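During the second year of the project, the team shifted from modelling isolated chains to modelling whole assemblies. The rationale, set out in the original proposal, was that interfaces cannot be judged from single-chain predictions alone. As a representative example for this report, we include one of the complexes processed in the last quarter. Its constituent sequences, exactly as entered into the pipeline, are reproduced here:
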Amino acid sequence: MPRVSIDGVAVDVPEGATLLEAARAAGRDVPTLCFDERLAPFGACRVCLVGLEGAPGPVASCTTPCREGAVVDTRDPVARRVAGAVVELVLSELPEPPAAHTELAAVARELGVGAPRWTGEVHGAREDEPPHPYLALRHELCISCGRCVRACDEVQGTFALTATGRGFHANVAAGIDEGFRASACVSCGACADTCPTDAITEVSLLALAAEGDRA
Amino acid sequence: MSSNLVELARRHHASGEANAVELLAQVVRERGELTAADIRAVAARTGLPEAAVHGVATFYDDLTAARGTRDVRVCTGTACFAASGEGHVHALEDGLAVRLGERAPDGSVSLGEAVCLGLCHSGPAVRDGDVIDAGPGAIERVLAGTARPAAEPAARSLLAEPVLLQTGDWTALRHALTPEALRAEVEASGLLGRGGAGFPAGRKWAFAAAAAGEEKLVVANGDEGDPGSYIDKHLMERSPALVLEGMALAAYAIGARHGFVLVRSEYPASKPALQAAAAAARAEGLLGPEAGFDVTIVEGAGSYVVGEETALLACLQGLRGAVSARPPFPAERGMHHAPTLVHNVETLASVPGIVRGGAEAYRALSPGATPGSKLVCFNERFAAPGVVEVPFGMTVRALCEDLAGGLRDGHAIKAVQIGGPLGGILPAARLDTVFDLEPLTREGCMVGHGSILAFDERTDMRAVARHLLRFGAHESCGKCFPCRVGLHRAHEMVAADAPVDRARLEALLETLELGSLCAHGGGMPAPIRSLIAHFPDELGLA
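Output from the structure prediction step:
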């Protein structure tokens, strides 16, 4: 059972535990975007960066295993600076600021991220997404965290979703991009439940949220 | 990478059929584009979910661009850029009356982009159907419909007994060392991985040998498509038996019974060359059931990042070539979840020579420097471009001037980029830097893949930054956020017709360097840092 130090506090963690799990066990909050404890760690968003003694630079805490004696600084200034910059980049790709109730908005607040220093092309809305009675997909709000795809794969075992494209133009699609209805989707809602940006929402909840935002 | 998809891919591979990437590429070759019905058919044939196959079909360059009856692909690699800027691309667009990346409305012709065709000794290069032409007059010949195969590069070794520039005769395999002794020999040789990271090969072999698992695999990475480098292409096409012999030795050392080579589709002659060499070896009983080891040669479909080892394994399994976080390292859990030893082609090609000559002789090739020998290659700006096997420890100047004859037509070196697009750029004033891992690292450069690519005095360094970042952004696999968004933003900054805000650019480079998941996003800042350091005025920093 490795013992690690999180911000000066010693924590014993099970074999195979990650730095993120150790930090959370120590009661230290580390912001994340692509992480969902129901899913295997993915290591894509790089928002969970922490300082690790002896490492050449910040490490992603969600995919770094705890080694005996590891000394972790969850408030390492370089790690926080880079994590904040990454969130800035994410905000810069969206056509509108994230809705206040989303996980993305919460992470931006936690890291003190304001208007992005880098601006340019943003994701455009797609009018051709076929409608579905329960689920709505707004491609322009997708940040390619892969949570919906992995929830559909790992939790539901339905494989109705996929990552698409690459680079800046990466996104998600239901089935072969003919919408949820034509895909293998069973309307379980796991994708909407895990989405950190409202790119995928349950239609009824979307309406409620819209009302809530207006209130 | 999804464990479930890997399991499905493993079951499909056991059926003996080609993977989903290859099946999709075959449809595009035959019919020019993919339809929904094609995706469903490949899903049914491979057992992969339809959505997953759609994800694959949208990832690879070869699968996304619709092809005309006549398909022309122009090389937009860095050597072709150094040769003619973007002039060759525009000439083809004008001459074929079709824009880059598009197909004529009547379907008669398409103009695609390839990075890179590996004819950097003779750019600019262009592929017209199955013929790759390059060098002066190539564009005109393609436009006249008279393309002809480009001449292959010259190759020579500075060593009395070449390690890498030999054809491979399988005699090393007949040296009856035990697996333990073979691992010890490679460990003692000090061989470092030649793909760029420089990880000790012996340590990797020890991990793979010790990993738990009934089945183990050896994978040759023939998809390190660094624009400007044609070293692996040369080895796969001229010395395929040497590469396979190296794989067989590695397999014997770690207890693997099967191997895979992933070959780039941009090198259309590589897969047939390796297949022919494998067939010849099978006929001799050197591969196959009797030998206890055999190989499968797989062709990629256009993605630079697939040269990263986890992305490589994803591609080999017919999945999206996205990078995965490590651990687990492939040596513990790789292809089909089996312990997998992944090596660059040149690393594997070094092994037979080490086994034949012994570790001590190998180390002695480069006294006081990184052990062994290295292939370097030069772009067409040089008077005598080609592939040369060199010891480590010469100066970059000696390589450029003594071996490659300096630049041709009286031009002068403005700067050289070493080791591919993730390598720093060395200005002419620093050519006395020693060609070895540490001295180059101190200059913000790397040995990388060993390509030495000169820009002459006429080169606009802001255009170099634009060229490199366009490539970097296009090739980002899209998995990690810094690379996915950051390289696009960096390209936008240098492509804009405005001064570049230095503080904003440097903050972005830091985010890429420290935040990225793999060496693509982490490495793309290196040449940009070089340009900031050595050519700040040309870069237009403000």
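The beta strands of chain A are 3-6, 9-12, 49-52, 59-60, 71-73, 135-137, 161-164, 171-174, 200-202. Chain A touches chain B through 56 residues (CB under 8 Å).
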